[in-house]
Specification:
Layout lengths: L2 H7 L5 H4 L10 E3 L3 H5 L7 E6 L26 E2 L12 E2 L4 H14 L5 H10 E7 L13 E4 L12 E6 L6 E4 L18 H11 L5 E4 L6 H9 L2 E5 L3 H35 L1
Parallel strand pairs: 1-10, 2-5, 2-9, 6-8, 9-10
Antiparallel strand pairs: 3-4, 5-7, 6-7
Length: 278
């Protein structure tokens, strides 16, 4: 139900009763909507932890480009004008990571690779008690003690992709490091260009969360954060503005949750059989 629909349902509520009201979305769901609209429906400090991976095209001095994306301006040498892989940003494609990657993801990624405005961070800090922001080195954030580093041991020094990624963290902890391959399994379907592995989110939730904590992901993407939150027994809200990514993410999560449920049922039955033998 939208907020406007809610008030139409209760037209006699006074203006005073509406003051400070926020229509909260249901937990343990993802939503195909702009995260700014979504966050506006929650009160201050509602989420225990926000783990987000916003796009950073056009953010920071290094990647400020004429067309506001990380692949434009001074990075024109990484583009191609090949008509075979034209995209929404003036007939260019991304070639810095190879033709196959560009052909599969180039058109889509340039369309959404724009860094969020400062208002996004104001709202993120309002609705969450703690924050972990991947790519935080591209944004104007305060110094942090507990930054996170994801080391990718499978990426060689001379490869075009980064060997590690940085996450800004608001928690008052020591800095943390995890070495985890970014290689994708051949038997699984991968459809998002900036997918982070479930193991990365598993690690974060083990370190910083307790069962029942409420988690927010404003840029859901592949949905792996949602899967890890499900496994950890955490309440979760995720927003994804792209309809295609959202639909694929929902189908992927439903299949994952059904499979995990079968595993848990089999494990419980096995444990029961072992008890009967004692």
């Amino acid at each position: 139900m939208t907020e406007s629909a809610f008030w139409l349902t209760f037209p006699k509520l006074s203006a005073d009763m509406r003051t400070g009201y926020r229509l909260m979305l249901e937990l343990n769901h993802s939503y195909n909507m702009d995260c700014m609209q979504g966050m506006a429906q929650f009160p201050d400090g509602y989420f225990d932890l926000a783990v987000v991976d916003p796009p950073y095209g056009g953010a920071g001095n290094t990647f400020k480009c004429s067309d506001k994306t990380r692949f434009g301006g001074r990075f024109d040498r990484y583009r191609s004008t090949s008509p075979a892989v034209q995209n929404l940003a003036g007939g260019y494609s991304i070639t810095r990571t190879g033709g196959a990657w560009a052909a599969k993801y180039g058109k889509k990624i340039i369309a959404w690779d724009n860094a969020p405005r400062p208002e996004y961070f104001d709202e993120l800090f309002r609705v969450s008690k703690q924050q972990i922001i991947w790519g935080g080195n591209y944004f104007d954030l305060p110094p942090c003690r507990c930054f996170l580093i994801w080391n990718k041991p499978n990426i060689p020094t001379d490869f075009t992709m980064a060997q590690c990624e940085f996450a800004w963290c608001s928690l008052n902890e020591n800095a943390k490091l995890i070495s985890l391959s970014s290689t994708r399994s051949k038997d699984a379907k991968h459809w998002h260009p900036t997918e982070k592995p479930i193991g990365l989110y598993d690690w974060i939730f083990r370190l910083f969360c307790h069962p029942g904590d409420k988690i927010l992901d404003t840029h859901l993407g592949s949905g792996n954060s949602r899967k890890a939150a499900y496994d950890a027994g955490l309440d979760f809200i995720g927003f994804e503005v792209d309809p295609e990514y959202y639909a694929k993410g929902c189908a992927d999560f439903d299949a994952y949750a059904a499979q995990q449920s079968l595993f848990r049922q089999a494990a419980a039955e096995s444990a029961g059989e072992q008890l009967c033998l004692l």
